[in-house]
């Protein structure tokens, strides 16, 4: 037994150092080099720039709470869409806190389209708190409100949403969805065109 | 439930089954120490490692020596991680200027990653510097996985060898698995992830002026390189707090499918490798059949429950499945499937928050872990855990029909059965014992976020996850406290190494035995009867032990949920 321990010390220490260099430094640094060289946009967070300013990431969600925009889902990441504190609500299915929160959110969102049931994803928090997407139903649900606030023809806004729906990959992977950031940028673009 | 959801499950299963043989053959080459095409490139590296550390890769180690070298190596790795985390503030590649990780959190994290658990008491983006992620954590993702596969090889040799004194060389096993399997696959996967939108940079964060004029700061880092091995090695420790639900870790439905496949890929390959090692691939397929049956049963229940949704929310006018704690791009099907895969294996990565699953939907991940994570299981750990159940199964079969207990040409005698039971008993003793302690003392009761039975489920889930070396959580539990960091650290250590040592003793004992040729008195260990018996043993041992605790947690929660009683 003692002999087993003694004989293990040199390999244990040297192998730890060698593997630390190869797996802990060389591998991630080499991947960083390859990523930055081949896919610089994605490797740096798929950032979208407008007039020299970074306005968002096409991958990660950002908060939209005003009535001028299509709104995102509620978020449990920090105070909402905090990119340094990703988190779900972690509330269980029979939680009073969950029920109170959903009730309040339903009341707030219902003003968009009174009388129609609120799509579930619009009043439930995502797993990351940074969900970039809403379901097509949740987007269509907000069309009338957005059109009203922006003084746009609802048909135009509805067509904008239809064109923004991402379908399932290969017909079965993932769910139909609308990237809220991308949709709202297109919405702003219409506004800018009309102003001209 | 949707047609597309079932199609996803079918396609996933189909691709997985297609991977069994190629990965199994590759593993078998490493098991035998044969040359692979990658040796041209990496052979010199391997030999250099041996030379510098004074290792003779051909030395055949007794099970005791194998165990001691494995333990000391893992201890050295954990010390490295502890040191890196504690000294984080003084080290480079810390763009956000994080301070030292606290003693109890560094203790917990070092064990957690060393034991292939990757329980996260911390939120990565607000705790760990880039160097800590790379040097402290990524390295364990490789080596705890390689250790698991090496240990499985050792047990395979126990069954395959005749009248032998040794069970292989630990250093050779670990080095070969790391260099010729884990590293090359991780490189390919990391490039795929980067191309799909997973960041890989040394920057710490980026500031964004949102369209609404607010400021958003997004954490960045070398995410893709860690993501690749995190899934492949069934580690599961995310770069970010939200793990694979975070759009930067898992941006698309396609990356999600690749992640799910990576979790199971090596585990299913090992069943084929086992069959090759003992000279009859049908032995491997029989094990895989039992595993896949349990897996698909769990998937069906979880998907059904999540798609049925939460009656409490239905009452508020929200129709359909349960979307609380799920991402829109994955939806109900991919989230349910992922939750079953990650807990069947000892991965513990999540793409949805298990804490917010429906009561029975969330019970499936919990129950998967309580079965000992032998449904495919962690890389290496799954198959050696399952083989201990197989030993138990031939013993039970022997009692029932009066056959001589033997398995793949080895007589199973009282020593093997006792040691197997010892290893299997660690799980219920630690999970139930520690959960009971945490449920009565104030430091434990301070943890749960949710009240009522769901609060108990959070505690039970934490200790189950720790002892079973999974690492997923009912994440509402506030676990970054001295009590939970300490208790869960001990739980992870026991759950990993108190199973490994008896298992290696079994391997050593079996290797020394003579070959017993199959006779008319042998119980056939291929075919439907055997597969059914294996499933029965796993369910009876796991199920009966944990049913009372499940009744207090998820089942009580379910009854409250359908009655609309809130906590």
TrEMBL record, chain A:
Predominant subcellular localization, coarse grouping: membrane
Listed transmembrane segments: 12-30
Superkingdom as given in the UniProt entry: Bacteria
Pfam families referenced in this protein's UniProt entry, alphabetically: KdpC (PF02669)
Coiled coil: none
Signal peptide span: none
Keyword Ion transport: yes
Keywords, in A-Z order: ATP-binding, Cell membrane, Ion transport, Membrane, Nucleotide-binding, Potassium, Potassium transport, Transmembrane, Transmembrane helix, Transport
Molecular function terms from GO: ATP binding; P-type potassium transmembrane transporter activity
GO cellular component terms attached to this protein's record: plasma membrane
Keyword ATP-binding appears in the UniProt entry: yes
Localization, UniProt: Cell membrane
Topological type in the membrane: Single-pass membrane protein
Record text on subunit structure and interactions: The system is composed of three essential subunits: KdpA, KdpB and KdpC.
Function: Part of the high-affinity ATP-driven potassium transport (or Kdp) system, which catalyzes the hydrolysis of ATP coupled with the electrogenic transport of potassium into the cytoplasm. This subunit acts as a catalytic chaperone that increases the ATP-binding affinity of the ATP-hydrolyzing subunit KdpB by the formation of a transient KdpB/KdpC/ATP ternary complex.
Similarity comment: Belongs to the KdpC family.
Protein name (Swiss-Prot/TrEMBL): Potassium-transporting ATPase KdpC subunit
UniProtKB/TrEMBL annotation, chain B:
Location in the cell: Cell membrane
Membrane topology reported for the UniProt record: Multi-pass membrane protein
Segments traversing the membrane: 6-31, 66-85, 134-156, 177-195, 257-274, 286-304, 330-353, 374-401, 421-447, 459-477, 483-507, 528-551
InterPro entries xrefs: KdpA (IPR004623)
Keyword Ion transport among record annotations: yes
UniProt GO MF annotations: P-type potassium transmembrane transporter activity; potassium ion binding
GO CC annotations, alphabetized: plasma membrane
Key words, A-Z: Cell membrane, Ion transport, Membrane, Potassium, Potassium transport, Transmembrane, Transmembrane helix, Transport
Signal peptide: none
Family indicated by similarity: Belongs to the KdpA family.
PANTHER family to which the protein is assigned, alphabetical: POTASSIUM-TRANSPORTING ATPASE A CHAIN, POTASSIUM-TRANSPORTING ATPASE POTASSIUM-BINDING SUBUNIT
Assembly behavior: The system is composed of three essential subunits: KdpA, KdpB and KdpC.
Role this protein plays: Part of the high-affinity ATP-driven potassium transport (or Kdp) system, which catalyzes the hydrolysis of ATP coupled with the electrogenic transport of potassium into the cytoplasm. This subunit binds the extracellular potassium ions and delivers the ions to the membrane domain of KdpB through an intramembrane tunnel.
Protein name: Potassium-transporting ATPase potassium-binding subunit
């Amino acid at each position: 037994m003692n002999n087993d321990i003694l004989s293990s010390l040199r390999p244990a220490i040297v192998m730890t150092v060698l593997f630390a260099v190869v797996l802990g430094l060389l591998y991630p640094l080499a991947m960083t080099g390859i990523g930055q060289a081949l896919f610089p946009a994605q490797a740096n967070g798929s950032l979208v720039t407008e007039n020299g300013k970074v306005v968002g990431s096409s991958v990660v969600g950002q908060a939209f709470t005003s009535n001028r925009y299509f709104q995102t889902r509620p978020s449990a990441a920090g105070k909402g869409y905090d990119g340094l504190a990703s988190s779900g609500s972690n509330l269980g299915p029979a939680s009073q806190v969950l029920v109170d929160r959903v009730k309040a959110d339903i009341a707030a969102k219902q003003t968009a389209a009174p009388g129609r049931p609120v799509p579930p994803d619009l009043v439930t928090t995502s797993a990351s708190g940074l969900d970039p997407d809403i379901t097509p139903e949740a987007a269509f649900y907000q069309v009338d409100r957005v059109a009203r606030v922006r003084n746009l023809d609802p048909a135009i806004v509805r067509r904008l949403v239809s064109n923004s729906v991402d379908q399932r990959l290969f017909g079965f992977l993932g769910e139909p969805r609308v990237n809220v950031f991308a949709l709202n940028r297109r919405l702003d673009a219409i506004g800018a065109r009309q102003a001209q | 439930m949707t047609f597309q959801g079932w199609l996803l499950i079918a396609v996933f299963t189909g691709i997985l089954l297609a991977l069994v043989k190629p990965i199994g053959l590759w593993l078998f080459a490493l098991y035998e120490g044969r040359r692979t095409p990658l040796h041209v490139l990496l052979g010199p590296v391997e030999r250099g490692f041996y030379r510098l550390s004074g290792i003779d890769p051909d030395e055949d180690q007794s099970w005791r020596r194998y165990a001691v070298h494995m333990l000391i190596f893992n201890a050295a790795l954990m010390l490295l991680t502890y040191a890196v985390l504690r000294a984080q503030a003084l080290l480079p590649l810390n763009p956000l200027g994080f301070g030292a990780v606290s003693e109890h959190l560094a203790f917990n994290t070092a064990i957690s990653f060393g034991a292939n658990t990757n329980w996260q008491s911390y939120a990565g983006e607000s705790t760990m510097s880039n160097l800590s992620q790379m040097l402290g954590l990524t390295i364990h993702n490789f080596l705890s996985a390689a250790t698991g596969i090496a240990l499985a090889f050792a047990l395979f040799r126990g069954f395959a060898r005749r009248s032998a004194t040794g069970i292989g060389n630990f250093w050779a096993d670990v080095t070969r698995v790391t260099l010729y399997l884990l590293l090359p696959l991780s490189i390919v996967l990391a490039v795929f992830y980067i191309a799909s939108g997973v960041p890989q940079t040394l920057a710490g964060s980026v500031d964004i002026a949102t369209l609404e004029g607010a400021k958003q700061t997004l954490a960045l880092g070398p995410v893709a390189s860690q993501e690749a091995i995190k899934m492949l090695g069934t580690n599961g420790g995310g770069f970010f707090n939200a793990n694979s639900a975070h759009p930067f870790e898992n941006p698309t439905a396609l990356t999600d499918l690749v992640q799910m496949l990576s979790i199971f890929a090596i585990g299913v390959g090992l069943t084929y490798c086992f069959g090759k090692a003992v000279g009859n691939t049908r032995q491997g397929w029989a094990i895989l059949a039992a595993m896949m049956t349990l897996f698909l049963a769990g998937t069906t229940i979880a998907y059904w429950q999540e798609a049925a949704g939460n009656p409490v929310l239905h009452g508020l006018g929200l129709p359909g499945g349960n979307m609380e704690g799920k991402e829109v791009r994955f939806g109900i099907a991919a989230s349910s499937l992922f939750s079953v895969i990650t807990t069947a294996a000892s991965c513990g990565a999540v793409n949805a928050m298990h804490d917010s699953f429906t009561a029975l939907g969330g019970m499936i991940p919990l129950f998967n872990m309580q079965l000992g994570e032998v449904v495919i299981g962690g890389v290496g750990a799954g198959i050696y855990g399952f083989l201990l159940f197989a030993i138990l199964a031939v013993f039970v079969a022997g009692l029932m029909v009066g056959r001589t207990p033997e398995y793949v040409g080895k007589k199973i005698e009282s020593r093997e059965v006792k040691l197997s039971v010892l290893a299997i008993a660690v799980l219920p003793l630690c999970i139930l014992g520690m959960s009971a302690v945490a449920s009565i003392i104030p430091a434990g009761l301070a943890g749960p976020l949710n009240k009522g039975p769901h609060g108990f489920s959070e505690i039970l889930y934490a200790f189950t996850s720790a002892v079973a070396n999974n690492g997923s959580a009912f994440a509402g539990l506030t676990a970054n406290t001295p009590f939970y960091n300490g208790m869960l650290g001990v739980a992870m250590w026991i759950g990993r190494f108190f199973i490994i040592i008896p298992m290696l003793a079994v391997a050593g004992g079996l290797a020394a035995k003579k070959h017993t040729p199959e006779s008319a008195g042998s119980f056939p260990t291929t075919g439907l009867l055997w597969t059914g018996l294996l499933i029965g043993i796993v369910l009876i041992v796991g199920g009966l032990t944990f049913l009372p605790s499940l009744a207090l947690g998820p089942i009580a929660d379910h009854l409250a949920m359908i009655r609309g009683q809130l906590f």
